[in-house]
Amino acid sequence: MAESGLRRGPRRSGRDTGYRPRQLPGPSARRGSGCLETGNAAMEAAAGKEDMPSFSREQEGADEKSVEGTQADQSGVRESKTSLPTESPPAEEQEEEVEQVESDTESIEGDLEEKDNSEVASEAQKTPEKVEKKISETFFYNYDDIYSRPFVTEDSGIPINLLTLKYSFGYDCTRSVNLLLMDSQTLLYIAGNQVVLLDLKTKSQRYLRSSSGGGIGFMTAHPTEQYFAVGEKGKKPNIIIYDYPSLRPYRILRDGTEKAYVFGDFNNAGTLLASVGSSPDYMLTIWDWKQEKIVLRSKAFSQDVYKVTFSADNEEQLTTSGAGHIRFWKMAFTFTGLKLQGALGRFGKTAVTDIIGYVELPDGKVISGTEWGNLLLWEGGLIKVELCRAGHKPCHSGPVSQLVLDEGELVTVGKDGFIRVWNFETIDAADSVDDTGLLEVEPMNELHVGRNVSLSFMSKVHDCGQPVWYAQDTNGAIWKLDLTFSNMTRDPECLYTFHSGRIEAMSVSPITYLLATTALDRSVRIYDFISNSQLSEMKFKQGGTALTWAPRVVNPKGGLIAVGFEDGVVRIIEVYDPKGLPVLAGQTNTENAKINLKQAFKPHATAVTALAYERNGDVLATGSKDKTVFFFAVEDEYEPIGFICVPGPVQALQWSPPSHVKSMLLILCENGFALQVPMPLPEEQDTVSTYQIKNLPMQYFHFYSIKSRIKLEEEIALREKKKQEKEKAKLEWIKQQQEMGKEIEEKEPEEEPKEEPLPPLYIPEEPSPILCGFYSAPGKFWLSLGGYDSGFLYHCEFSNDHQDDPENRKDEPFEVIPIEDTDNNPIHQISFCTSSLLMFCGMQSGALRVYPLQDKDLSVNTLKEYWSFNVHDNDYGQVQGICSSYDDRFLITCGGDGNIFTFNILSPEDVHKELKAKIPSPRSGLEKEKAAEDIEDPNAYNIEEVKQKKEYERIMKEAEEKKHKKREELIALRHEFLFLLQKNQELPKHMQLHREQYEMDHRIFEELDRQTAQRIQLVQKELAWEHEKHLIGLQKLQNQFRDSLEFDTVVVHAIQSNHQISTYRLLAMSEKYYQDKERPSWKRTILKRAWKQAEKREIVRETRHARIFEGEAEKLKTSEVRKPTTHYIESKHEKIRRIVEKSDKVKAKIMKRKAEWDELYKSKPSDDYENPKDVEDIREAQENMGCYKLKTATNYRVPEHKRMNPEKKVMQLTSLEVLIHKRKANMNKEIMSLRDLKVSIIDEIKRLVQELKSIQAALDLSECLPLPLVPQLHPDEVPEKKFEYDSDILLKFKEEQEAKAKLQKQLEGSLSSHSFRHGFLRVPSIKEVDPVAQVAGARPMKIESSVVTEQRKVFEIEKAEPTEMELEILKREKIKNLYLQETLIKKVNALVINFDAELRFLRHKKLKLDVQMKSADLRYITWYEELLILKNLEKHENLLQGRVSTLLSEQEAMQSKLNSYLAQMEDRKCEMAKLQECKKALYANFQASLGENNEFAHFLTKVLKKKIKCVEKKEVGREADEKDENEEENDEESSLGIDEENSGSEDEVFDDSVCPKNCNEALFRNTIQLRQKRLDIEKALTEEKKVAANLRKKYNALAKKGKVLETSLDTTEKELETFQWEKQQRLNELCVVVPLKLHQVEYLVNGEMPSDFSQALVFTNQSLEYLQKRIVDLRNEKIMQREIYKKAQEQHKQLVQDKKEMEIKIRRLEEKCSHLMMKKFGRLVDFEAVQAHSVNIRVEELEVQIMEKEYVHSQELKQWEERILALQQQLMKLTKENTSKLQQLNQFCLEKQQLETKLDSLKNDLGAEFQGTQTTDIKEKARLESRLKHMARDTALLREEINLLSRKDGCLREELALLSRKDGCLFLQPASPQDSETPADTFPGLTPEVVTNGPSVP
């Protein structure tokens, strides 16, 4: 706390001087002049901090201006009559308070600007070294120092009390919680920037202003109701704790959020306060409010948070809820201190919902509401169950706004107007029963508050010991409720009613202190703002949008009001005092004021937005959103003059003031247009066809934005000013330097920094909306705009240029006045107080501004000084209306927050005490007038639409009259033409004119025909869609009702009797039945699949055999190619084969014998053996025999195969339906066959009758027998003919329908409907008779006429006298004809009789089938009821079955794991056994390496057994079983004679790294190696033991789980079995109809039939006969089983005796065998082993293999010897050739020597003749020299080869394998390894010249 105002100076009152200086807003200003002076440095350092409270706002000489964000600090004047306490604490307490003040400097020193979800520890945890000083319990702030006051411009001279709050009429019912009761008499609610304290008895109000002026967010009461907290809005708002009832500010909590507080709540003990803020931080803060400290804080959520509360039972738990979330918080101590931890509630399957109301339960659960009205029970952050009412109805029909725990009951409050009380225990223990998550619960009690009631909050208070609830209704009411739910419970009482939501319009009376308001809640209310009361209210069907009080010139009494509504209706209502009406006998008028509807008319199609009376009261103008302005002549009845269309929706209308010459109307549109029109004169308007005024001159102004240009000019001016100031400062500096005598060096001019580019001009795409405006002079007006162009008042003028399209205009204002702090807060309403020259402005932020005007003209200087006061809510309380009273004493404002405030203007309140509002007296004769007709239909025609409709009807009537005249003329011409035709007929034929001669021109008729055809075609095109539509409709009807029929009802009648038989009307079976029929059975599918697989296997087998056959053939071919082995080897093979066969036979014999013994021993039954057949019979008997438990018995268990589910039941129903359909279809086919038979019989009878007629024509009439009647088909025998039609039938049907319609119309319109009805109920005419009957009636007439004709012919023949021959012939013919006549008649009668017999027989058969079908239908019904029951139980059954299946699968998986663990454990045991064997083998190897009597045995044993520490870390602790295994290992080692423990424990120290002297080095190294191997084995053994131990642990744990799982499985199976029994009981409850005859009833009591059959059982005859037969069978079976048992006992005794004898015999033979073996071999021998091992087949096979190898090697040696011999011969040949070469060489050498000698001798004897050059000699010499060279070269080569081949110790590593000559080159290939092993000295030297036949290579 920075400063303390404990010793305050004298407080200046604004009333002392009439003025108050402007106060510095915000907490950073030093406001106290008399602050405490202390020497504490900490307090001095903290004196300027923002978070420190201050107690005085008074400071003179302040020179700062408030910005818009802090302008809220400038409002707050208390009502003078409700003065609040301002006294300071007593003097003796001030010293104590001085000590406590220091704690404010230390309260919240930490950084509170933390990140989201971060917690702040308490101050004690942050700075424990500081000594905390607490604020005194008796310390209070001064209210006058903290409440916000109005803002007044500095040095303006405007009094601070220019306006004082008088009364608040409204109520912000749209807030979620805006109702607080501190006691039974005081009700608190928030109204804009005030908290209103309403006294329920006196209706008086007291007000608490907000400290910031930014509005109020919430208020909440302390549990003790001694304090209440008010959370404010604004920049860094505060929470102020007020004491009650003194209303002194007790504590101020700072820096809890950024913008606004939303909700707050005290804990149950009252020590802590939780608050939550709005956007942007949504900060949840826990306060130690008495010390003004923050305990904890965290971000609550990232979206809107509605509510925060402490748990009533656990104060460490909190809950927050809001948009789409709920969060559960805990205050927990951690190692870093106290933290706030939040868990977000998860909705899971439930849809995400906004949660407004919730309540914490004592056990930690939370119940919350939903948007759809159900309740959610939360536990552990999850939804446990969703609660609804029976039938899945929601708990409330809409959102649940509040939940309360009251006296052990849960109370829910809904937006549907219901309050319901629920059983707390039922809800607390609620749990989900199915997958839907819903649980149906019914409330114990409920209260419906009323119609159109939407409850949002309730508060409880005790009045005289009785609980009373006060409820907030969002539809604008406060209710008083009694929730005791007893016989004495009072009905809900509505205490107050208000407007719901935003107030749309307001107006004051021109002659008295009355106020009228309207809103979208469909009401108009009248207030008396002198007596502060609501006088009257009137409800309508639609919401009000505009209202104006008629001026005095219209209604001198001032009781007339015009109201516009959202459906376009304008209603003229009048307010009057009902006491002025004549009082009827027995009645009294107690009401203060009454509202009467005088007239209602509808000029517009959409909402009316503006109403304005002309200054003289002659015209009323109405504007609407439908872009029209309507004018009415104001008379006793308002008459329409006409309307004009404007370019946009109308925002406001204003007539020019009386100072203007002409009466003009200013029309302001929302889209930036302003219009001016003169007053239309009623007599000049033509309203015959329309009310639209087209000749009214209009002037347009289309606002064009200039704000961007203004800002640009300001920026340019600012930059220019800065440049000038900079230049001026530079010149001054130069001047100073010159005065000081310093020389100024000329510097290069510095480069000026580049200026930022000027912002571009901006014109908004959508024009800014015009908010309000008013005339300044004729043709000139001021405008206030919103959007981008806010911040200025624009002075505009209508121009004289007229453009055709107003949209293309760009009009700019000629003068602009900037308005301070209105860039984002435009002026919405402007009103003037004429007497004091004041301009009142209503702002968007809900603030009220007053500008004093020096004169009537506005100017920049005039609007610089103003008075501002924040009244309405700063967020949504924009001022909707502002006006002063008729005498300018009062100012009234209304806002979007639903509040209405009245203010006193510059006059103290006590002056107005004598004032009184006068209610207008009623008009004379008002009580006798009929109620005005109202327009209730929102879709009713408006005035113009009614006019247009009448005009249209008039035009149509004139057209009909013209048509009627033309028709009459045509009728007269027709009559004249007919008269001419008649005259023409009367003339002689030769004088008559033909019809063609009447045609003056045939082309006329052709043209008429063509036109008719065109019209017909046109009509067909026009009716094509209708035609297609009806065709499709007909097709649909046929598809629905005809195509689905497989058989229609066909009635076949007997011919002679009245018997008849009809078919069943059968619907075609659906496709699924046919699919089921066509679908092959599973057996057939499996057989087909198995057959295909067998066929595939057969193909594979054949392929495999073919491959085997091919392989064998290849092997045979290969064996044929190979050379045969020797006879000896073959014989050996044969011998081995025989031995193997013999051995195999012996082994097979032994194995067979052994298998027989095994089989015998296996077949030996155990002692507890039971015959499987007997066991099966017993099981079957237990299941099926002797069990007569009824299905209703408690111990009845449903067998597995008899368990029923919906799928099986559907299959049953399907099969039954198919069977019924099949039987009915078969019967229908028989009946249709009978009808076909009747048709054929009728045809046959017709033929016979025709033949009979021809016969009777030759007989005398007396001899003719009557002709048999030809039977006819009845219409119901051929119903398909009803659907056969043609155009004639359709036309006739149309005529009948038209006649019926005409008749119906006549009957309805006629008074004597009975006589008409009697006249029309006549016998149908011949044309209307059935065509079949017509045919039947016409045929006898034809027959009679033909008979008469025949008789005439006979009479004509009889005229001639016949001869005797002719007479004889005639006689014979007559006899024949008589016989034929009789025969044919008998035949006809026989056909008829037989047909009737067939019909009666089939009818009897159908009757039996009907009985069966009825029984089937009854069964179908029963089964269907069972199906419904099964479907209801299906979910639970599937759930249980699923659990069983899951447990079974888990059990199988667990068993497989157990088996795998067992297998792994066995593997580990085997591995350990192998390692033990390796270890034993190692020690055995060591003992063997030591030998006997080794002197170093002890030393080497110690070396071997020495324990060496492993490099790896050993585990600290070992398992007990490992120790046991180590002990076992030690025991095993000690058994080998090596004691490791003793050897390792000796004191002798030895070095195992050095081999001792005289010890074998190899033995020592071997010991070291063995030790290393031992260590490796032990390490591996240890690892294996660890693995085995882990496996054992896992196995044991899994086995335990398996037992638990088995228990769960048994439990679940029992539950399933119990459920099956319950399901069977449900099925048993169904009633099954069984029709019985009396002889079928065998249940008699005392020989009589009982009246109650509940104890009887119903059996089928077969079942009963089977049971009776079974009794006899069981008796016979019992006798037979006894005989079998006796025989079995005797057989058992015999077998026991035989067993003993066989055992004795076996023992004797074993002893004999043993004796013989000892006698022959000297010991007992196993003959089977001897026989099995008599021949060592492996040895024999190896011998044969050795022989085969030897044979192969001998063959190979033979080949090599032959090859060596061939090579030796080749070498010999080459040697001979070489020798001949050497001899030749030797000869050449000799020749050479001789030639050289000869040459040398010739050289000295050369003659002269040989001195010259000779060509021949030269050539010869060259030839010889070249030859010599070649020979020398050949000689050298030969020598080299000879030297190479003749070396004694040399060897040839290669031999010549292939010598080939190719292109004169030699190829040498290395020989095989076998050849290379041949010694080189056996081969002489080889020369290439000898090998090749070609020339030698040099």
Describe this structure in words.
- A 5-stranded antiparallel β-sheet has the order 1-55-54-53-52, with no helix packed on it.
- Helix 16 runs antiparallel to helix 20, helix 20 (1364-1490) runs antiparallel to helix 24 (1561-1628) and helix 21 (1497-1505) packs parallel to helix 24.
- A hairpin with a 4-residue loop joins strand 3 (180-181) and strand 4.
- Mean pLDDT is 80; it is low at 1-129, 1078-1088, 1112-1123, 1311-1359, 1511-1548 and 1848-1898.
- It is extended and about 165 Å long.
- The longest helix has 127 residues, at 1364-1490.
- It is of the alpha+beta class.
- It is built from 30 helices and 64 strands.
- Helix content is 40%, strand content 19%.
- The two termini are 126 Å apart.
Structural class: alpha+beta
**Distinct helical segment count:** 30
What profile does the largest beta sheet have?
5 strands, antiparallel
CA(first)-CA(last) distance: 126 Å
Parts with pLDDT < 50 across at least 5 consecutive residues: 1-129, 1078-1088, 1112-1123, 1311-1359, 1511-1548, 1848-1898
Mean model confidence by pLDDT: 80
Query: What is the molecular shape?
Result: extended
Overall helicity = 40-55%
Strand ordering within the main sheet: 1-55-54-53-52
How many individual β-strands?
A: 64
* Fraction in beta strands: 15-25%
Radius of gyration, taken over Cα atoms and rounded to an integer in Å: 64 Å
Helices and strands, with pairings:
Layout: H1 14-17, H2 41-45, H3 91-101, H4 103-106, H5 123-126, H6 143-146, E1 151-152, E2 163-168, E3 180-181, E4 186-191, E5 194-199, E6 205-209, E7 216-221, E8 227-232, E9 239-243, E10 249-253, E11 261-266, E12 273-277, E13 283-288, E14 293-299, E15 305-310, E16 317-322, E17 325-334, E18 337-344, E19 358-360, E20 366-369, E21 375-379, E22 382-388, E23 400-406, E24 409-414, E25 418-423, H7 424-428, E26 438-440, E27 445-448, E28 455-463, E29 466-473, E30 477-481, E31 493-497, E32 503-508, E33 514-519, E34 523-528, E35 533-539, E36 544-549, E37 560-565, E38 570-576, E39 594-601, E40 608-613, E41 619-624, E42 628-633, E43 639-645, E44 650-655, E45 664-669, E46 673-678, E47 699-702, H8 707-739, E48 770-777, E49 780-785, E50 792-797, E51 815-818, E52 827-833, E53 838-843, E54 847-852, E55 867-870, E56 879-884, E57 890-895, E58 900-905, H9 943-986, H10 1002-1022, H11 1024-1042, E59 1045-1047, E60 1051-1053, E61 1060-1062, E62 1066-1067, H12 1071-1078, H13 1082-1121, H14 1127-1163, H15 1172-1184, H16 1206-1256, H17 1287-1309, H18 1313-1320, ...
Parallel strand pairs: 22-26
Antiparallel strand pairs: 1-55, 2-58, 3-4, 4-5, 5-6, 7-8, 8-9, 9-10, 11-12, 12-13, 13-14, 15-16, 16-17, 17-18, 19-20, 20-21, 21-22, 23-24, 24-25, 25-27, 28-29, 29-30, 30-31, 32-33, 33-34, 34-35, 36-37, 37-38, 38-39, 40-41, 41-42, 42-43, 44-45, 45-46, 46-47, 48-49, 49-50, 50-51, 52-53, 53-54, ...
